[in-house]
Amino acid sequence: EKGGYDTFMEKEIFDQPHAVGDTLLGRTDEAGHLVLDELRISEEQLKNVDRITVVACGTAAYAGMVAKYAIEHWTRIPVEVSLAHEFRYSDPIVNERSLVVSISQSGETMDTLMAVKHARELGALTISVCNTHGSTIPRESDAVLYTHAGPEIAVASTKAFLAQITACYVLGLYLSQLRGGTFADDAQAVMKELHEVPAKIEELLGTMGRVQEIARFMADTRSVLFLGRNVGFPIAMEGALKLKELAYIHAEGFAAGELKHGPIALIEPGQPVFVVVPGPDTPHELHKKVVSNIQEIRARGARTIVIAQEGDEDVVPFADEVIRVPRTSPLLQPLLTVVPLQMFALHLSTAKGLDVDQPRNLAKSVTVE
Ligand code: F6R
């Protein structure tokens, strides 16, 4: 049942082209327009939405953070991401004009379920992005947008994460099309590019040998840092979470812009730092800014492992290792940049002789608060 792989996690990482492709399937008409009749929410109701709050936990919350950048860009609707357990016990600004999007692989996470119930009590419209048919959270929501990642067995989430980002992008593009804003015309172009992502993940998965070697050399490492900006920031946090869960190594993800506000004090000679580099065409000169962040930490002795697009030569002088990802437009990059980080955690866990699929103290679905 592991399909020839040693672990479910590895199998699921290699399933990711399908997780993305299948989640896109059937959500456009022949002309490439998004069609989400499955939501069974009236267009009027959706047009009325003036804010979106995403509620989720762990990896699903990082998918929500990635989605925030994209949905705000495409729809100009403010998007807030709340950890479900924090949302539940706060006084959130949510009302009849709010859309609360929950994200959950299992559909059974108690914290997320309670957040959804709370949102409904406050009058919000609730949509569940979920991977498990017939589970509780979709049942308790007004509508559901299923991710089609297939069953995820390994405790650490991988393919569900990519499918969650994909589903949120579909939702964001649909809302943009519905509202007919300045971006609506581009929605079809983004969908077209999204359809090219599975083949790019496939290509990337074929080049992970060096990541495995790096992981093997790092079996004794006690701390690893991850940096990113914009959509690369939640990816940095996801990379750190995977490493904590799977290899029991202290790891932290930062927004690279925060470095000089504190974390740079952690940099000492030999400190491994993964940097998720935005493509050179990313707005606001973010590429240049991240390259200079790499330069700053390298000057203080960090060992830099840089995840950069094919053809990006600017990173080379400051990188101890460069891991290449295929080119795609800036907002879609997380679907690629996270893959080497998943692989790194998997191989480091294996190198330490740990149980990849069943890390200590963790359960696949957390059904208690
Ligand atoms: C991380 C991981 C957890 C889950 C979180 C939410 O690898 O698996 O952080 O993402 O517990 O679970 P779901 O998506 O089932 O609500």
Shape by Cα distribution: globular
Fraction of residues in β-strands: 15-25%
Total beta strand runs: 10
Order of helices and strands: HHHEHEHEHEHEHHHEHEEHEEH
Question: What's the N-to-C terminus distance?
Answer: 32 Å
What integer value in Å does the Rg equal?
20 Å
Q: What value does the average pLDDT take?
A: 96
Structural class: alpha/beta
Ligand identities: fructose -6-phosphate
Helicity level: 40-55%
Number of helices: 13
Low-confidence segments, ≥5 residues, pLDDT <50?
A: none
Largest sheet: 5 strands, parallel
- The side-by-side strand order for the widest beta sheet comes to 2-1-3-4-5
Task: Walk me through the topology.
Elements: H1 8-14, H2 16-24, H3 43-47, E1 51-56, H4 58-75, E2 79-83, H5 84-88, E3 98-104, H6 110-121, E4 125-130, H7 136-139, E5 143-146, H8 159-179, H9 187-205, H10 209-217, E6 223-228, H11 232-247, E7 250-255, E8 272-276, H12 286-299, E9 303-309, E10 321-325, H13 334-351
Helix pairs in contact: 2-8, 2-9, 4-8, 4-11, 8-9, 9-13, 10-13, 11-13
Domain SIS: 42-181, 214-359
Catalytic activity: D-fructose 6-phosphate + L-glutamine = D-glucosamine 6-phosphate + L-glutamate
Keywords: Aminotransferase, Cytoplasm, Glutamine amidotransferase, Repeat, Transferase
